[in-house]
């Protein structure tokens, strides 16, 4: 059963923002870039001192999205309540426009394994994730978004297609979906799914934000390839195309450019955000023309 | 069909001990299940090793990148994080290095690590408003000796038999000349570590001032700290701590010499 949730309409306009990482703190404070919002990893702002003061300053100029990477919504053993409390405290201070976490797990036996690990797509895992999303939304007194994963393996005993799993979490808990377009593309290529069919299977009304990032391609010994979601390069053309498909289906949405390894100059990130803004504008025009016709 | 708990336990063993229990649950094709899990294992190891590098940069430069990576790998398997807040991961790394035999010849290495741990704690400590001297004005004079201060979360003390502050500075500045000139037998150092607006400051202090501060920071009463110091300048040292914002609160002890 879902708890009573205080819904807040997203105050983030349906335009592009960037993921703020430490190498850009100084630059962003000195000259705020022309982007619509900024998203940070919640876990990097749990202490005091310079990082949280930077976030305080950014928050005065931009809507902020808190994106968690460590809550482990899929842990069979339950949530780490001390971690949930740390997240609540960052949220209380920052008053973010959006908060999100992942459909993944990273804690087992009380140990944090420092990666977003894949879940078997089973009724058991779905029930556990939904219970934890309910628990988080109650603790934070707000709706959260959950992000679809990028994965490199599938479990033999999975019974639910990932897109149905995502839709079910949203339907059962009232949470939103953070649709990561690059993750859909990476997982689809790795597991031979149809990325367009994945996008088409998600419930448009539940989507609260889109993510875009670059990934790398690893050649395998058998001549095949594996896509690795390393957030270390520009968004590739095929992912931009899938993003345009998503915009046509979901409508315009706040869209984030993520870049976590080999972080480039701030201008490069802002350039990627410009490209996303241009696609949002183009798709909007298409939709207006279609409505008029 | 394995339960979620069984799958997660098997994968944890694979990520920490390199055991292969998870493979049975994973679909096999051209790319073997064990290789697929290895991608996650590598990401996990890289993330945790980087977290240790961020806290212990001088240790890494002293031992070299390869040695550091090998030590970190063993440490991560032995003592993986217990929380998803990686800023505080690795607090037992200095003690691990102390007992790490390949590092035994670098006598001061564990103490450099302790200094870096202290600096890291100062860096990430929660914010707290310093105690304003005006807040002390209302204490009756008769109660002054019973005041027990609460130190700022980012302030701490450490001591070492080696000049670890000089080693730490020279290593981080890549100053080999200064490093080579450091006299390891110059005697113990007594250090105060605190966060300022521009970063973390490590200050060398005299042993008796350090011991006075240690008593105050441990929450002992002012009279107990003054008695321990037995130095006419101790009230001035206290005033310096107050002026520098090193306390965030106080309580009155029941016993005068607690």
Give an overview of the whole structure.
The complex is a heterodimer of chains A (293) and B (258). Chain A is of the alpha/beta class and 293 residues long. Chain A has a single domain (16-292), classed as Divalent-metal-dependent TIM barrel enzymes (TIM Barrel, Alpha-Beta Barrel), CATH 3.20.20. Chain A is built from 9 helices and 12 strands. In chain A, helix 7 (195-201) packs parallel to helix 8 and helix 8 crosses helix 9. Chain B is an alpha+beta fold. Chain B has 2 domains: 1-106, no CATH class; 125-258, Outer Surface Protein A, domain 3, CATH 3.90.930. Chain B is 50% helix and 12% strand. Chain B has helices at 4-17, 33-55, 57-63, 65-78, 93-98, 109-124, 133-136, 164-172, 176-181, 207-217, 222-229, 234-243; strands spanning 147-151, 156-160, 189-196, 199-205, 247-252. In chain B, the strands form 2 sheets. A 3-stranded antiparallel sheet of chain B has the order 2-3-4, with helices on both faces. A two-stranded antiparallel ribbon of chain B has the order 1-5. Chain B is elongated and about 80 Å long. Chain B starts with a helix and ends in a 6-residue tail after the last strand. The mean pLDDT of chain B is 93. Classes of the chains: A alpha/beta (293), B alpha+beta (258). Chains A and B meet through helix 3, strand 5, strand 6 and helix 4 of A and helix 1 and helix 2 of B.
């Amino acid at each position: 059963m879902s708890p009573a949730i205080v819904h807040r309409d997203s105050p983030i306009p349906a335009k592009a923002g960037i993921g703020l990482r430490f190498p850009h703190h100084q630059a962003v404070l000195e000259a705020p870039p022309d982007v619509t919002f900024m998203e940070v990893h919640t876990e990097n702002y749990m202490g005091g001192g310079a990082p949280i003061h930077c976030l305080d300053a950014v928050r005065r100029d931009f809507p902020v999205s808190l994106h968690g990477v460590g809550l482990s919504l899929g842990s069979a053993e339950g949530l780490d309540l001390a971690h949930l409390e740390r997240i609540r405290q960052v949220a209380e201070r920052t008053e973010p426009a959006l908060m999100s976490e992942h459909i993944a797990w990273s804690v087992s036996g009380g140990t944090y394994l420092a990666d977003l690990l894949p879940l078997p797509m089973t009724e058991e895992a779905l029930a556990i994730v939904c219970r934890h999303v309910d628990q988080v939304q109650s603790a934070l007194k707000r709706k959260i978004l959950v992000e679809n994963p990028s994965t490199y393996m599938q479990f033999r005993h999975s019974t639910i297609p990932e897109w149905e799993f995502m839709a079910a979490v949203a339907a059962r808990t009232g949470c939103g979906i953070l649709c990561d377009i690059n993750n859909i593309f990476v997982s689809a290529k790795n597991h031979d799914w149809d990325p367009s069919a994945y996008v088409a299977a998600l419930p448009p009304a539940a989507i609260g934000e889109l993510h875009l990032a670059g990934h790398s391609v690893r050649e395998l010994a058998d001549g095949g390839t594996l896509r690795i979601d390393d957030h270390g390069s520009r968004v590739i053309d095929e992912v931009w195309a899938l993003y345009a498909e998503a915009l046509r289906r979901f409508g315009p949405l706040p869209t984030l450019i993520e870049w976590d390894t080999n972080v480039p100059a701030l201008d490069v990130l802002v350039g990627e955000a410009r490209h996303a803004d241009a696609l949002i504008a183009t798709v909007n025009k298409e939709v207006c023309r279609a409505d008029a016709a | 069909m394995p339960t979620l708990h069984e799958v997660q336990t098997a994968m944890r063993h694979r990520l920490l001990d390199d055991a292969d229990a998870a493979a049975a649950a994973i679909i096999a094709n051209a790319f073997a299940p064990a290789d697929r899990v290895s991608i996650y294992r590598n990401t996990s190891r890289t993330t945790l090793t980087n977290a240790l590098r961020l806290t212990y940069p001088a240790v890494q430069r002293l031992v070299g990148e390869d040695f550091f990576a090998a030590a970190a790998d063993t440490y991560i398997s032995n003592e993986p994080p217990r929380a998803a807040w990686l800023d505080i991961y690795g607090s037992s790394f200095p003690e691990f290095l102390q007992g790490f035999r390949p590092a035994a010849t670098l006598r001061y290495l564990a103490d450099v690590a302790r200094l870096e741990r202290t600096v890291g704690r100062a860096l990430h400590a929660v914010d707290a408003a310093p105690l304003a001297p005006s807040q002390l004005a209302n204490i009756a004079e008769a109660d002054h000796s019973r005041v027990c201060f609460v130190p700022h979360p980012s302030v701490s003390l450490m001591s070492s038999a080696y000049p670890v502050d000089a080693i730490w500075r020279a290593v981080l500045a890549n100053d080999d000349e200064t490093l080579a000139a450091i006299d390891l037998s110059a005697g113990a150092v007594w250090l105060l570590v605190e966060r300022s607006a521009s970063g973390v400051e490590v200050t060398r202090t005299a042993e008796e001032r350090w011991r006075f501060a240690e008593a105050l920071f441990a929450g002992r009463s002012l009279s107990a700290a003054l008695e321990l110091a037995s130095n006419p300048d101790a009230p001035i040292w206290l005033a310096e701590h107050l002026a520098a914002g090193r306390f965030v609160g106080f309580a009155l002890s029941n016993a005068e010499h607690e």
